[in-house]
Write a structure and sequence with these properties.
446 residues; 3 domains; nine-stranded antiparallel sheet; five-stranded mixed sheet; 18 strands; globular; disordered C terminus; GIY-YIG domain-containing protein
């Protein structure tokens, strides 16, 4: 920003009076405006187009889609601001609040973006945080994040607010504003028909009650074999169990779900983390299994303690995967555990030369069979895909991805899981402020 102070710059005591801010395109620059009562919006500063593009076009880094990359109110406020929202942030000693006014559009079709969220268009997005002490870590209040209309408040996840903001973002903020190579490979020609499907596949129905019980029994057997205690029906019973053993709250847990799935995690605050999962899984939750980690608890350095927990968590997740459990983890379960052949083994130099000369035609002619996956290898994605397939734009997104694979990925059928994969509704960090966007992405790892 051009030598101007930060519009959300905190006071020395870490506070910020309610500050309302927005951005808009003005010729070659992006203007930053702040709101003053009785005056309205006034120019605060500007961002050069090149700098703005770098803020919103950085490649995503890996992140676990289940939790927010940053819970700092200022970071979250900037993320909404960069999507064209009108945001108002207030930060106190131990409380913070954020109001989000989503971008308005004169295009009738934009009204449909509000439909999946079940709230009237023009509703306000709200997020609240608390912390135990000044300069401490902020904790988002899940029950206080949601949409506020004139008549009601509808609670939702922070990621859903970002999803709507991304859908409603002005055209000059969306990727087309940044793409210098539109039509690359196909030179803007209409892509030919492909054997790849352009409609979202239906999610298969769940197994019958007997099969589901067998899956829950498998989770129970695996948890007990790996040293977990349980199942415990409530967080209170977990706390009582740990107290009876004089055991620490640092360790690992397994959440058993009614459909036979499970979730495996690590934490330094068992009660707090399981309470969060109680809200997250709701009626699906059957019980908890817990396993304190005395070694991690004894480590003085936070970094060492976290590393010990993560390494043990990785081993547990991989073991659950080998046992065929339907674990709904994202980290460590992203790619199937199978021998890695490498891109060179899947595509020979002569094949690659053919593809470079005419990508679309070569991909259409390729008759390589699609890779088959076991259910246990993609269980973590089933819930996300089911959510995605119900959204009104799912068919359009799949069609866009089909075209991308056809034009830009060499032999997509034979190189899937060898040099590329798709993420469905993932969370990904973006930018220097650890920004987290809800996106659909194709990860290429040549």
């Amino acid at each position: 920003m051009n030598e101007d102070p930060d519009p959300f710059e905190l006071e020395p005591d870490g506070t910020l009076q309610p500050t309302r801010c927005r951005i808009r395109l003005d010729g070659p620059d992006v203007l930053v405006e702040t709101f003053a009562s009785g005056v309205g919006f006034q120019r605060f500063g500007s961002i050069e187009t090149e700098e703005f593009e770098s803020l919103i076009s950085q490649e995503p880094s890996d992140a676990d889609g289940s939790e927010a990359a940053s819970s700092n109110p200022v970071d979250i406020a900037y993320e909404f601001l960069l999507l064209g929202c009108d945001v108002e942030l207030a930060v106190g000693a131990k409380r913070a609040s954020l109001d989000v006014r989503f971008p308005e559009s004169s295009i009738p079709e934009s009204e449909r973006h509000w439909d999946p969220f079940g709230v009237p268009s023009g509703s306000l997005g709200q997020v609240y945080w608390i912390r135990e002490e000044v300069a401490g870590d902020w904790l988002e209040l899940p029950d206080r994040a949601g949409f506020r209309s004139i008549d009601e408040f509808v609670a939702t996840e922070l990621g859903e607010l970002f999803s709507l903001a991304l859908l409603l973002a002005p055209d000059w903020i969306k990727p087309d504003f940044l793409s210098p190579r539109q039509g690359w490979h196909s030179e803007a020609k209409k892509p030919p028909q492909s054997v790849l499907p352009s409609e979202a596949w239906e999610v298969e129905g769940r197994a019958d009650a007997f099969a589901t019980k067998d899956m829950r029994d498998a989770v129970n057997e695996w948890a007990l074999r790996n040293g977990f205690a349980g199942p415990f029906e409530t967080v209170a019973k977990v706390v009582e169990h740990l107290k009876s053993l004089n055991a620490p709250s640092t360790g690992h847990y397994t959440v058993s779900l009614s459909d036979g799935h499970c979730y495996i995690g690590e934490t330094v605050q068992m009660a707090d983390r399981l309470t969060t999962h109680t809200r997250r899984f709701g009626d699906r939750l059957v019980g908890f299994y817990v396993r304190p980690d005395l070694r991690a608890h004894s480590m003085a350095a936070k970094k060492d303690r976290k590393m010990q927990l993560l390494l043990a968590e990785r081993s547990l997740i991989h073991d659950a995967q080998r046992a065929g459990l339907f674990a709904e983890n994202f980290r460590e379960m992203s790619f199937p555990q199978r021998p890695f052949t490498g891109f060179a083994d899947a595509v020979s130099p002569s094949h690659l030369g053919d593809w470079i000369s005419d990508p679309e035609a070569v991909c259409i002619r390729d008759e390589f069979a699609l890779t088959a996956l076991k259910s246990s290898e993609h269980a973590a994605k089933l819930a996300k895909y089911h959510e995605f397939s119900k959204r009104p734009y799912s068919g359009d997104v799949v069609e866009a991805l089909r075209r991308y694979l056809l034009r830009c990925v060499p032999y997509p059928a034979r190189t899937e899981l060898t040099s590329w994969s798709l993420s469905c509704l993932p969370g990904a960090k973006r930018g220097g402020r650890d920004k987290k966007w809800t996106v659909v992405s194709c990860h290429q790892f040549l």
